[in-house]
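stage 2 :: seqdesign
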């Protein structure tokens, strides 16, 4: 059964018709709009995931579905553009602007991920972070789904009256709302394009605009302008979409030339993203611009979210990239309830392994889509250097998705000539590899509880092994084995934390990656060490497998 969520209720979708041509879809809307409410989507471009360019369904009766319909999993999140790739694209756009081919380009890229579980649960989770006036979702053929939390009205038609609300200008909720000249110019440029597009299908002199309207949402603030007009007699949906689609706010100016530039730069098909999703019923029609929209391929277990921003001559790459991630905040906040952690050694006013901490932070923020205020963190750490010139301290950096961070400093007493006693445990079920590779809060609670339990039994640390008896890591350390005068550590491909001290040891050539068997320890053929950036190498001992507990 095909079904959709429209504004506040689920409905059954019937008699679905699919199209590979927008014009044919518009003709079908025109011929069927008096049959009753229709649910419609029109893609910006042909999808690279297999669903049709456009579709129309007749909306049937309402269906009762629980918002808590199962759980969901979002893993292996990949940003389609890292910052340096993004910066290269912005330079190309500015070259086009300098040569006079365009004034503004709406440049986008995808955030891709693996998906499992209930798409309904994901939709309501996203809706909790992005409450909008008209949320919509559609699931069809038992395979594809779109979850649209768009705050941007493409157009609303009532009889011959039409309203459009192009959106240009984005602020974080904790930023001061000030409309600078750049934002004002961007918004006006798009409004002028909308006026021009509407002028083709509207009565002469009827197009008017209300400029610079602030709209507040849970994760951000948006600037919109409202453009109104009176349509000419008997304007069809083919004429309407031919003039207005795709919306100027997600292309740039001038529209046709800029679309060509976009196609050459982006390197992927937008699909439904920046297209249109809406409802038509007789003389009424309402469509949202399909931004803040998640595409799901339920059979393949794949998902995608598009993000983007308008690039003009005075755009700064780092600010535009941060704005793109801000627009995706509703998604990341919904699916990732975790933060990044770096625990550093501050010794006599110096951070000995700081470059390796920053290396890991840069990688992790790119993998998980976190905002990365590198310069702010560096300045904060410089202040700590000045304040704690003498002695040994533990510094814990906690970085949250939106770039907010905390620093905690505490004295650290280093125990000399210590040999740790290890409690061996099986680590049977792995989390997502990226979550194990970087130090995040996802498994921190488990590791902290496990270490606390081990220490209550007289152990200093836990050493995890997999079901085949190969060593992995500790709760707060990496494991190193010395055999025949050489040091070895398990490879990260096995799903172990790529610790800062481990990185340093590999970079300096003092250690090699290798599989390490539990038998090597029990038979006494190797010396075991545990190590991290706070303590460096600590000799350790263990004798047998003491626990068969598994990670839940």
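stage 2 :: out
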């Amino acid at each position: 059964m095909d079904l959709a969520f429209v504004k506040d209720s689920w409905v059954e979708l019937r008699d679905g018709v699919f199209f590979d041509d927008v014009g044919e879809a518009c003709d079908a809307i025109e011929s069927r709009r008096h049959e009753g409410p229709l649910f419609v989507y029109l893609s910006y471009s042909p999808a690279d995931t297999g669903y049709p360019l456009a579709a129309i369904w007749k909306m049937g009766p309402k269906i009762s579905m629980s918002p808590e319909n199962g759980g969901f999993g979002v893993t292996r999140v990949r940003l389609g553009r890292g910052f340096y790739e993004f910066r290269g694209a912005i330079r190309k756009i500015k070259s086009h602007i300098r040569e006079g081919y365009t004034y503004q380009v709406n440049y986008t890229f995808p955030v891709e991920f693996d998906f499992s579980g209930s798409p309904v649960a994901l939709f309501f989770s996203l809706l909790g972070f992005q409450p909008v006036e008209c949320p919509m979702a559609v699931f069809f053929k038992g395979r594809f789904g779109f979850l649209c939390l768009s705050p941007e009205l493409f157009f609303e038609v009532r009889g011959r009256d039409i309203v459009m609300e192009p959106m240009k200008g984005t602020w974080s909720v904790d930023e001061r709302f000030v409309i600078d000249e750049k934002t004002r110019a961007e918004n006006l440029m798009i409004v002028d394009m909308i006026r021009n597009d509407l002028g083709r299908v509207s009565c002469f002199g009827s197009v008017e605009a209300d400029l610079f309207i602030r709209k507040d949402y849970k994760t951000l603030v948006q600037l919109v302008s409202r453009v109104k007009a009176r349509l000419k007699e008997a304007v069809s949906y083919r004429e309407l979409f031919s003039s207005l689609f795709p919306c100027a706010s997600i292309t740039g100016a001038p529209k046709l030339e800029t679309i060509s530039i976009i196609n050459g730069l982006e390197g992927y098909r937008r699909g439904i993203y920046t297209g249109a999703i809406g409802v038509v019923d007789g003389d009424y029609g309402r469509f949202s611009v399909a931004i803040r929209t998640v595409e799901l391929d339920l059979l393949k277990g794949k998902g995608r979210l598009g993000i983007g921003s308008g690039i003009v001559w005075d755009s700064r790459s780092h600010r535009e990239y941060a704005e793109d991630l801000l627009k995706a905040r509703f998604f990341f906040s919904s699916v990732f309830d975790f933060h990044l952690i770096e625990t550093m050694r501050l010794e006599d006013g110096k951070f000995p392994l700081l470059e390796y901490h920053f290396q890991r932070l840069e990688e992790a923020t790119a993998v998980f889509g976190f905002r990365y205020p590198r310069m702010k963190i560096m300045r904060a750490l410089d202040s700590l250097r000045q304040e704690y010139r003498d002695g040994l301290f533990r510094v814990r950096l906690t970085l949250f998705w939106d770039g907010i961070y905390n620093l905690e400093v505490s004295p650290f007493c280093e125990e000399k000539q210590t040999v740790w006693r290890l409690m061996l445990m099986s680590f049977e079920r792995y989390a997502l590899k990226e979550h194990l590779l970087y130090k995040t809060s996802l498994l921190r609670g488990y590791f902290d509880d496990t270490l606390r339990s081990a220490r209550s039994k007289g152990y200093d640390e836990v050493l995890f092994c997999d079901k085949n008896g190969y060593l992995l890591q500790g709760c707060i350390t990496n494991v190193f084995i010395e055999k025949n005068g050489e040091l070895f550590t398990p490879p990260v491909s096995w799903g172990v934390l790529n610790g800062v001290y481990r990185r340093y040891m590999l970079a300096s050539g003092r250690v090699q990656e290798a599989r390490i068997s539990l038998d090597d320890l029990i038979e006494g053929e190797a010396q075991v060490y545990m190590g991290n950036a706070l303590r460096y190498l600590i000799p350790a001992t263990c004798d047998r497998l003491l626990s068969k507990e598994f990670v839940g």
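stage 3 :: structure notes
- The chain has three domains: 2-333, 340-411, 420-547.
- The chain has 14 helices and 30 strands.
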